[in-house]
Each structure stands twice: as C-alpha cells, then as structure tokens.
Amino acid sequence: FVSKKNSKKGSKQDSVYIAALLIQRWYRQYVARLEMRRRCTWNIFQSIEYAGEQDQIKLYNFFGFLMDHFTPASSERNLISHIFRENEICRDTDWERYFCYKSIEVPESYTGPHLTFPMTFCGVSKLVEAFKHKQQLHARYVLQILGETWRLLRILPNINYVSICHNQEITICGDLHGQFEDLLLIFYKNGLPSSEKPYVFNGDFVDRGKNSLEILLILFGFLLVYPNDVHLNRGNHEDHIVNLRYGFTKEILGKYRVHGKKILKLLQKIFSWLPLATVIDNKVLIVHGGISDMTDLNVIARVDRHKVREDCKMNKSDSDSDSEPEGKETDEREWKQIVDLLWSDPMPQNGCIPNEVRGGGCYFGPDVTEEVLERHNLQLLIRSHECKQDGYEFCHNRKVLTIFSASNYYEVGSNRGAYIRMGCDLVPHFIQYQASRTCRELTLRQRYAAKTSDITFKSLRETLFVHKSDLISAFKEFDPNNTGMISLRHWASATENILNLGLPWRVLRSQLVNSTKYGMVDYQQWIRELSITEPKLEISDASILDTMYKNHSNLETIFRIIDTDHSGSISFEEFRQTWKLLSSHLKTEISDEAIADLAQSIDFNKDGSIDINEFMEAFRLVDLSAHT
Amino acid sequence: MVESNNQSAENTMSEVHKRIKAAFERFKLSPNTVDVREIGTIMYSLGCFPSQADLHDFIAEVEEDHSGFIHLDRFLPAMTKVLLEHKFPPIPKEHLFQAFEVLDKDSKGYLEPEELTKYMTQEGEPFSQEEMDEMLTAFSDQETNVIYYKDIVSQLTIDPGN
Asked: Which of B44, B103, B153 to mutate to test the interface with A (most CBs of A within 10 A)?
C-alpha cells in the first residue's frame, strides 16, 4: 500500500507518512459509511412521514366519497352530517357569544401569567418568559387571545404585500411543529418581533412537538401587537382534521380538560382564516408548500379562504342551494389552487404532476417555477414543508428556497433548523442552529457513531407488522413449494411491493432480519420475530383484526372525528355505524355480529359506551424488543 | 454483503451492478448524475479504500469535462472494474494499529490531540480543518482529551451498521 506520490521527506520519515496516510484513508471511509447510513435513516423517516400524510388524504377522500354516495334517508348519512356539523350556517356573532371568555373565572390559586388587553410588547414578552418556565396560560386568557386573533384575521387579505424599508431586514421562519425550544432559540439569536424587526412565519406551527399551543399563543400575541410587521402564512398542518392525527388536538384536550373543546373550535376558525401567502417588495413570494402550473395570485386573492377544505367535495352538500353547478366547479378549481399552495413539493424534472406521496397538491418542476414567477414578475419563491438537513436548501436554479425551522425534527441529531434574514436587496442570508438536548456538543456524525438508530427501526418494524398478512401472501408467491423459505432478494422485492416506501431493503436487511440460512429467510419466523404483541381481545372474526391493523394509523383519527363533542367516548351505535362505513369503503365484508362482538369486548367497564383510549390501548402495538 | 458464493460470473456482475446503482441512487441529483464531490463517499460506502490520489485519477476518468457531474453511464463500468478487480482493498486492522504506534513515538498508548493534529494535517493526504475538528470531537476521551487509539481501532474497524 505504498503511495505512488513522491514523499517530500527522507526515508526516515516515510513510515510516518505512510502511517498518517493509512489512518486518513480509514477515517474517511468510516465517515462515508456513516453518511450513507444517515441518508438511509433520513429516507425511512421521510417515507413514513409522507405515507402518513397520504393516509390523511385518503381519510378525507373516504368521507367525501360517503357524502356523495349515501342517500338522504340512510342513517349513515346522518352520522356524517352530525360529524361535520361545523358546516351549519351560523353567524359570526353567534360564534362570538359561544367563545366568550368573560364568564370564565380565574381562581386565586392560579400561578400562571395574567394578561391585560389590548396586548402590549411587554405583555407578550412576559408570556414568552412564562412559557419558558413551563407555566400554563389560563383558559380564560387563551380564549381571549384567540378571540382577538380571530377578529384580526378576518380583516386580513389572503395575500400580505410587504415592503422592506432601507436599513431594515425581514426575518423568515419555516416549520416549527410545536418545538418551542427552536422558537426560543430564534428569538434569542435574532431578537423578538417588533416594528423594527418584522417577521414572516411560514406555516406548520403545530403538531408533533409538545408545545404547539405555546407557539401559537406567542405568534398570535406578536401579531396582535404588530399587525403590520408580523405575518403568518397558513401551513397544511393548520387544519383541524390533520391535528386530530398529528397530536395538536390531543395536546389541547390534555392541557385544558374543561375548555379544550371550545378552544379547539375557535382554533378551527382561526386556522381557516390564516392568510395564504406573503409577497415581499412584489418580488419574493412566500407560501408554505409550493405552486402548480395553475397558480394565479389574482385568483387566489379573490377566494373566500375560510371556506376551503382539502377535500373540496365535503362542502358540496352544504354550499348555498341556489348556486349554479358551474359556480361549484369554479369553486373547486379555486380551492384546488389553495391546496396546491399548502401541499406541493418541488421536483427536479420539468412538469407538474399530482403529489401521490403526500396525497395532496403537486410536484412542480423548474419549468413551472420559471413560468409562474415570470408571469407574476417575481424573482424568488420561498417555501417550507420539507425537512432539510441544513435547515435550508435551494433548487430550481436558486429560484426556489426551502426554509425549515424545526431542528432535530426526525430525531436528535437529524437536522439543523434555519431562518432567513433579508434586506431590501432581497438577498437571503441564513442562520442555522440546533436545539441540543445533551450537555456535550456532538457533531452530527458522532451522534450516529455508536449504535443503530433505534427509533427508525421501531417505526419500520411497526409498519411491517401492520402489513403482515399482505407480506405473508407476497412471500408465499415466491415459495410455490411451500418450503417456508425464500431468498433475500425475493424478501426485499416482496417487501417493497407491499409497502411501497421506496426504501433500500437489501441494505436494511441486516437490521431487520436476524437469521438467514445460506441466504434464505424463514419468513414466518421473521414475522413472528418482529416482536409486536398480540391484542388482548378475543374476537370471532379474525379478518376484523387484520383490517384494523392495516388501518391502524387512521383508526384513532376516525374515532376522534366521531367523538364530536370530544368527550372521549362514543356510543355503540356510533361505533357500529362507523365500522360499517369503513368496511364498505375498504370493500371488505364485516358482519354485524362481528362488529357487535368487537364492541362488547372493548367496553371493558360495561357501561354501554366505548372509551377511545381503552380502544386504542387494546390495539396498541408494543415493540417487545424494546423491553428485552 | 455478498450473499452467495456459488453464483456464476454473470450473476456476480449483475450483483455488483445492483450495488453500485443502489449507492449511486442515494446521492443522485437528477436521474443519472451525481455531484463529483460525492464520488469519494460513494466509493467508500462500497467498501473501497482509495487514497485521495486514487480518487483524483478515477474522477479524471469518469467526469464529464469538468462539469462537476458524473454520469451513471461512465461511472458504472469504471466502478464495476474497481470492484471486480479489488482495486482498493481494505487495510487489515493490525496495520491500522501499527500505524498509530508509529505516530506514538513515546509509546504512551495514546496520542495528544496536538500530536494527532500535526500528523493528520501535515502528513500523508492532509485533513481539512473541518475533518480534523470532527475526528477530535469524535475520538478524544471525554475527560482527559487524549486519543486512546486502541479503542479507535476497534471502532473504526467495526462495520457501522451496514
């Protein structure tokens, strides 16, 4: 292994040269392998995340489908209408009365922050401090801030046009996802919002992280104090149905047991009223997701943004009875443009295709960016929506800039967060950070140095488990002689066909398959070894279990939707109807008897209603290997 | 990672192609190109141990006229040759350990961070400052700050998961 290059030193030093060379080569190879593994892990998380979003849209489609196909007379139709009663026509003044905070008393024993209105800079700063010290704001004040916010948002346009003065810079932040630490970091590094320090927050303030409400209250607080200098764009997670799945609803109900429902309802209204875009100096467009080839800001400016729903169909039954069919089609086209703004992702190839991975919006290519920007006389599109390792990333010849502000998003060490500072020259400058949870500063690579990424593989094992019966069928196709064994190549191919996650299964094999004999996998044993516990229920019809496992991620969401008053439990009848709906949508046969069985066995305390938590508990996937 | 030894030469070739394509896939910018700066990482991840000089030679062979991009069409045959001919084989653990012993002139059993820095940034194919900082952060002992190379050798020679 002697290098061919000439060494500058004499022969005495050759051994040092060679030794150093050796060590360098080893180290570089080691680092490269870590990088490969990091990318792989990243892909896994991202695939699972996007598959979840896809499920979400499927859910919308499910309800839309039902609205279309059930007759007015059927009882199931009533259930759906009952669920979506928010579409009932009710004047804003009636809602204002419902949301009124005045009757709520703040007890003497309350140790959290007190707010006075109108809000001031000091008031909001104090609120930031209070949240930093983990205090909780009383429901009265929450409703008060939210009420004021709602009132303000209703007079804001769909698109905020902003100009930057000389000597001023605007700060633009991406997804925060309930990660309060990151918002604090940004404020610490950059300063609090004010008329000298304008900010744009580009959506996805909530879900996943544990402090979504705190982030919202702070952002709304600053919005109220500086309505001309703080700009909020709606993200795809500012949506009450998405919140049912991704944790925000749970967070609110957990923190506010008595007034949570009211708060959620008001937030639902607020989200629908959030502006959709911000334009800086008529040159820089900022939206949460992206654009499509249909994007037309003039059209978007005119839309009634608070009426838009992801599944446009759901509003069909409740829109004005005298509006023309043509009118409805125009509505749908307009609403689709908005969905595109909130859900689209850029892609490297030219063109504009539906975003199948997310289930909503488009994939848009550099030609679409070029065309849309030119048509509107813009020079840059700033968007968020996708996690980036360095917190930001350019694409499309630097005409599209992604900014993401939630650090360590997938797991500790996964990525940095970043924000943009931009002056009147409209050149973006980036500040990156990482909220560290350990005392010792670790390099990104070091975090991966020691062991396998436990969290990744836990999610992956869960996903594999919920598809076990499909997997076994697929494996059996490669095993015509019923030997119980298949080759690793076939294992990888079958797994990808079923899960459709686009992951490098052959590379992941060593983490997922414990034992192989001469390159063959005992697939039945492998499924057993995924170490997920079986549920404690005894049910006559095994296929129900199968259906439930496959739809595990949607189950909880569906149930929370049924539980319209957020009481935490649903009646047998509601349960039965829901089940029938789901099974017809999934085209599976489930007998009434089997459903009744299931309902009985879940009602552990035999009080005639089903507690959602009990239900989910019975089906919770537990990774036993974590406990061994 | 090669699963079976009793495959025909043809199968081996297609196995090799698959591995190369999979590695290429992870870094690609557009369907068939990668940034030239990623070639080192890709080669290392395929189990090769080229020196920087080796890398430069390889890149000169496959790069599209200094465009900064490498096309799969040229990468695949060149890389296949490298793998089938075992051009840049791994170095045995003992040699790595001996290398550290050579640098540890006083046979202390460890290296001071300044010592290691001097060698890594001045000898061989020098590290950049970033590489040096990362290595020190990753491998210096938490309390004493020195580098116990016996431990590193075990770590560097363990397959990190793949």
From this structure: B44
pLDDT in tens, A428-447: 999 999 886 543 334 433 44
Buried b (16+ CB within 10 A) or exposed e, B63-100: beeeeeebebeebbeebeebbeeeebeebeeeebbebb
Helices A572-585 and A592-602 cross at an angle (nearest 10°) of: 130
Domain boundaries, position A509: 454-530
How much is the pLDDT for A309?
A: 62
Interface test with A, best of B51, B94, B130 (most A CBs within 10 A): B51
Pair A376, A250 in one domain: yes
3 state SS of A317: helix
Using alpha carbons, select from B115, B118, B134 the residue that is nearest to residue B126: B118
Find chain A residues with C-beta within 8 A of B43's C-beta: 32
Q: What is the count of structural domains for chain B?
A: 2
What are A349-368's pLDDT values in tens digits?
899 998 877 778 899 999 99
Mean pLDDT over B53-68 rounds to 82
Domain carrying residue B80: 2-84
The complex scores an ipTM of 0.82
Q: Dig out the tokens for A598 from the structure.
A: 């299931």
The CATH number that applies at residue A484 is: 1.10.238.10
Specify if A102 maps to a domain: no
Nearest chain A alpha carbon to B127: A24
B152 and B80 within one domain: no
- pLDDT, tens digit, 9 for 90 and up, residues A328-343: 667 778 888 999 999 9
What is the reported pLDDT for A387? Answer: 93
Average pLDDT taken over every residue of chain A: 78
